[in-house]
TrEMBL record:
EC number: 3.2.1.67
InterPro entries, alphabetized: Glyco_hydro_28, PbH1, Pectin_lyas_fold, Pectin_lyase_fold/virulence
Family annotation (SMART domains): PbH1 (SM00710)
UniProt-listed GO biological process terms: carbohydrate metabolic process; cell wall organization
Active site: 241
Protein family: Belongs to the glycosyl hydrolase 28 family.
Localization (cell): Secreted, Cell wall
PANTHER family in the cross-refs: PTHR31375
Name of protein: Exopolygalacturonase
Gene this protein is translated from: LOC123451164
Species the sequence originates in: Hordeum vulgare subsp. vulgare (Domesticated barley)
Amino acid sequence: MSGHRLTLLLVALTALVGLAAADAEYNVVDYGARPDGGADSAAAFQAAWGAACNDTGRSGSRPVLRVPAGRFLLSRAYFKGPCRSAGVVVAIDGNGTVFAPPVVDSMAWIMFHHADGLAIRGGTLDGQGQEYWACKKDGRCTGQGPRTLDISQSKGVSVEQLTLLDSKNVHIAIFDSTGVTVEGVRIVAPANSPNTDGIHAQLSRHVRILNTTIGTGDDCVSLGPGTSDVLIRDIKCGPGHGISIGSLGGQAGEEGVRNVTVERAVLTGTTNGLRIKTWGMPNPGSVTGVSFSQVTMHRVANPILVDQDYCPRKVDCPGKSSGVQISDVSYEDIEGTSTTPVAVKFNCSATNPCSGIKLRNIRLTYRQKRPAQAKCRNAGGSASGEVRPASCF
Ligand SMILES: *[C@@H]1O[C@H](CO)[C@@H](O)[C@H](O)[C@H]1NC(C)=O
Ligand SMILES: *[C@@H]1O[C@H](CO)[C@@H](O)[C@H](O)[C@H]1NC(C)=O
Ligand SMILES: *[C@@H]1O[C@H](CO)[C@@H](O)[C@H](O)[C@H]1NC(C)=O
Ligand SMILES: *[C@@H]1O[C@H](CO)[C@@H](O)[C@H](O)[C@H]1NC(C)=O
Ligand SMILES: *[C@@H]1O[C@H](CO)[C@@H](O)[C@H](O)[C@H]1NC(C)=O
């Protein structure tokens, strides 16, 4: 064989191998999606998902649902599995934005259900919540509104490098799922937008939220009943209501929250810092094995807060005490400023006092330099290292 022929053969072989190794791609534009923001692209997204989800894939490769650069109007998406592939990769171009119409008639705008092995990467999801918030504020809209991204009953999911803007309700909801990692994500909504939690997890295990920046009108992260084995690390939060466990105990039969680690967080201008919140009602429940460490607070109204008397509408709870037992919660290396004099408040249940609370190396001041206070009610624990304000146990 001549050298020339050999080279051609090698080129052909390389191309074949490359083709075989490449993941199959399903580009929404090929299914009729409009990158000019014009007509609704829902049917195209749905068809591309169906094809990708049906792709059996080759060993180790996952089909890719690609959203290229452009602005795509999506009225609603219900991406349902189980898929025949080992999982679908939803790759949105860095200059690709998927945006919602002003009204979405569903609990979720973009829903992934039974989507094991799903990976979502890049791009922007714009919930266009402005009209809906106004409608909520003047009482015309009484519902909660659709969550932007809902991941439900799925295993082994990752969400990376995604930007979420102006959701009508919660930005990312993780429900009844196992092994969900959110990493390098940015969530942005105005401080006065109602119920726009950044990330809410419920009934889920092994959830990791890493290197993520969240500024919204509600909790940056909230963990609901039945959530366990959670790692939240390298988080920037603000504006918003802080990092919250709860509300818990609002209903009978709730599962507890356990094994939660929050480390290396910076909270700026938030109403709460690290909060555990339960309804002032006798429904049983539990929070145990929580560790907060290396947290910096800038101008936070309530930096460390346990509130077991949550009852915003003052019905059903006044005069009752929470049935949720809070135990084994540690706070270590927490520093910064509080905008209110009480920087540390443990207001626990009279019938289920908090136990095993540990404070170590706490340096919180009221504004820049004034000493702050700590207040306890039905709370037991210990303090070590430098603890300012002095502990109230
Ligand atoms: C998936 O494949 C099945 C069987 O091959 C077919 O009946 C179904 O229509 C496909 N679904 C989609 C959404 O393409
Ligand atoms: C977006 O598009 C601009 C202009 O075409 C380009 O300079 C930039 O690199 C793109 N960014 C990404 C993340 O693709
Ligand atoms: C954190 O996320 C940002 C934004 O996505 C990214 O640019 C940066 O590289 C990430 N940092 C690390 C340490 O992963
Ligand atoms: C606690 O959760 C972390 C993070 O998911 C996990 O790595 C660890 O194994 C869990 N610990 C226990 C005792 O279950
Ligand atoms: C603490 O909780 C009790 C009810 O258990 C409530 O009456 C009181 O107002 C709360 N105190 C503060 C300072 O929040």
